[in-house]
From TrEMBL:
This protein's name: Heme chaperone HemW
NCBIfam families recorded: hemN_rel
Main location as per UniProt: cytoplasm
Entry function: Probably acts as a heme chaperone, transferring heme to an unknown acceptor. Binds one molecule of heme per monomer, possibly covalently. Binds 1 [4Fe-4S] cluster. The cluster is coordinated with 3 cysteines and an exchangeable S-adenosyl-L-methionine.
Record-linked PROSITE patterns: RADICAL_SAM
Gene Ontology terms for molecular function: 4 iron, 4 sulfur cluster binding; coproporphyrinogen oxidase activity; metal ion binding
Domain Radical SAM core, chain residue ranges per copy: 1-231
Compartmental location: Cytoplasm
Domain of life of the organism encoding this protein: Bacteria
Lineage: Bacteria, Pseudomonadati, Planctomycetota, Phycisphaerae, Sedimentisphaerales
Family the entry assigns: Belongs to the anaerobic coproporphyrinogen-III oxidase family. HemW subfamily.
GO BP term (any one): porphyrin-containing compound biosynthetic process
């Protein structure tokens, strides 16, 4: 029996591929293909003997789960709602597909958290991102979400876009806050290799903002959301008190999780494994493809735990780190700790260590110091 805190389910279908997207997804609107995929997904779920009592969260992402027809969305949600009773049940929805009927379906199957991928309310920024959605569609989707009985609403935003000004991003934030979300995830643009956006940046057709402007946007994000009562609990995540995303918290605490669907990754029983990024192969294999697998050494698990915990406002809680890994954090990373404290990027707390505000802004750089050879 597998004891896993979190279950991730990947629905890799979209009606088109965004120009900025580096996640595995395919443009596919054929409902028959969707149904075949859900059948394979059911088989994969049945192949794992999951301890129902240990499961705290379910997160259905993509792609775009909301591209499914109402019938297929019902089939997907019932697959999990009839078997599990998680503390938190999240479904991602694309504003283009978010309808009252889809929301009612989610409500019927006990979904209690929505994550809406708005990214921006600016037509110019949406065009830069290669998104076909519009400002009006984003606003209408959030209006509909606001009328749902599902009160836990996350809005995804992206900043640091080509041609985006600080004022542009400030407007995006203000509009998002007008819908009174319980949670906002805001990410500095990551240019993924092989995407049309990356090609446009490489060819000089689009120019990214400089580091100073990107930093100003990030600082404004933190201060504006704090004013609105959403506190920063992770590098890119902000919430009202008690509305933190438990699913992501489990990732950042280096808990076990199981991923289902094409390209989904898992970490269970000291092993990382993932399904191939291949919808046709996944369906042909009946949801049980050959998986790539890596067994982590004790030290590899220790650095994974350190890197993930440092992403949060709590940072490293030394007793918890020791209980999970068997290592003393301060002894294992003594030189890395000293280096980052001296640079003003890390600070000691009563129970461990955490990033300073300066460290949060360069967290990826700091994290690389805690990857052991």
């Amino acid at each position: 029996m597998i004891e896993t805190a979190s279950l991730y389910v990947h629905i890799p279908f979209c009606d088109y591929k965004c120009g900025c997207c580096g996640f595995y997804s395919i443009p596919e609107t054929d409902e028959n293909v969707h149904q075949d995929y859900l059948n394979a997904l059911q088989n994969e779920l049945d192949s794992f003997d999951i301890d129902e009592d240990s499961l705290e969260t379910i997160y259905i992402g993509g792609g775009s789960p909301s591209i499914l027809s109402d019938k297929n969305l019902s089939a997907l949600l019932s697959m999990f709602a009839e078997k599990f009773s998680p503390i938190e049940f999240t479904v991602e929805m694309n504003p283009r597909h978010l309808t009252r009927d889809k929301l009612i379906t989610a409500e019927l199957f006990a979904v209690d958290r929505l994550s809406v991928g708005v990214q921006s309310f600016s037509e110019k920024s949406l065009e830069v991102l290669g998104r076909k959605g519009s400002r009006a569609e984003n606003l209408n989707a959030l209006d509909a979400a606001g009328e749902s009985v599902i009160e836990n609403l996350n809005i995804d935003l992206i900043f640091g876009l080509p041609s985006q000004t600080l004022e542009d991003f400030a407007k995006d934030l203000d509009i998002a806050l007008s819908f009174e979300p319980s949670h906002i995830s805001a990410y500095s643009l990551s240019v993924e290799q092989g995407t049309p956006l990356a090609e446009a940046v490489k060819n000089g057709k689009l120019k990214l903002p400089d580091q100073q402007l990107d930093r100003k946007m990030y600082e404004h994000l933190i201060h504006r959301l704090e004013e609105a009562g959403l506190y920063q609990y992770e590098i890119s995540n902000f919430s009202l008190p008690d509305f933190e995303c438990l699913h992501n918290w489990n990732y950042w605490r280096s808990e076990q999780y199981l991923g289902l669907g094409a390209s989904a990754g898992s970490f269970c029983e000291g092993k990382r494994f993932s399904n191939p990024a291949d919808v046709e192969g996944y369906i042909a294999a009946g949801g049980n493809p050959e998986r790539e697998c890596q067994v982590l050494t004790e030290k590899e698990y220790a650095w994974q735990t350190a890197v993930l915990m440092l992403r949060t406002n709590r940072g490293i809680l030394s007793p918890e780190f020791s209980d999970k890994t068997g290592f003393d954090f301060e002894k294992l990373f003594s030189s890395e700790i000293e280096k980052n404290i001296n640079e003003g990027l890390l600070e000691k707390t009563l129970s461990g260590f955490r990033l300073t505000p300066e460290g949060f802004s360069v967290a990826d750089t700091v994290s690389r110091d805690f990857v052991l050879d």
